[in-house]
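# nightly structure sweep
# worker-07 picked up a monomer target from the shared queue
# config: single-sequence mode, recycle default, output format = structure tokens
# input follows
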Amino acid sequence: MISRISRELPETYHHSIFSKENEGKICLGIESTAHTFGAALTQIVERKGIILSDVKSVYQPPPGSGIHPREASRHHAENAAKVIHEALNKAGVSIKEVDAIAYSAGPGLGPCLRVGAVSARSLSSYFKKPLIPVNHALGHIELSTMLTGAIDPVVLLVTGGHTAITAYISGRWKIFGETLDITIGQLIDQFGREAGFSSPCGAKIEELARRSSNYLPLPYSVKGNDVSFSGILTAAKNMLKEGKKLEDLCYSLQETAFAMLIETTERALAFSEKKEVLLVGGVAANLRLQEMLKEMCRQHDARPLIVPQQYSGDCGAQISWTGLLAYLSGTRVDVEKSIIRQSWRFDKVAVKWRY
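# output follows
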């Protein structure tokens, strides 16, 4: 039996998305921005967003190491065909039944992006399917709004590549605040690698943090609505070399960095007067961050929404779903003109599928 996820879509999407002509269209999405090569199929039926399948293979670097772009791209090239084939099989769909093919066009690691783009271009050319470029960060946001039923949220996006507070205004996801240097995911991963773990280190740091309640002061850097994590990283690394207990440092790092994120998100919530806060991205799986976000929402009588853990990290579903919305809104690119972008801000992307 095929396991499918189905969610009722709110009125925030443009009515043309639900036209009779668009009913049941299927999009194959390919994700390859960093350590994950993923493929997924999604469709919209009777005003419901449906994930037909979601398959991934994740590159695992050696202990103490980060993602090596060349090695990660080699992993993706070796697993691309298998992952795409399995996604089609699990969905019970043939490639000829697919209406459009979406790929993560950026931002991300160049060698990794190229593997996904080449896979998508090849399928698009051979089977004569429309090709849809997708912004990876936008994919996190759009998939999470679909899965949680969010209507008009302030979004806290926390991944290895992004840290931003955003909300949808006048055709784009506008940024209220962001990191001025490294992301929250980079902070956690770089400290974890210093301690001898391999990326991604989030689960290990969270596990160690739970064993302590001894707070060690670390730099708290909030500038307006923006945050800065580089000072925390330097201080935590130095304290680790001085022999401070690892559990205490993990606890202190989480408490400090998460408090900064909650403060800036709270400010955006108060300014925008919205009634929902959506936590999105790989770091959204952290239970302590979820707890702090829920408490802040409780104080403001706002609805806390958290992306399901299964879809918090990088996955093909985020590209497939956002690619489907873009395709149904008229977006497509010729294979000859399709590109990848290692740097591509999501607030520069026109969102045609929302009112």
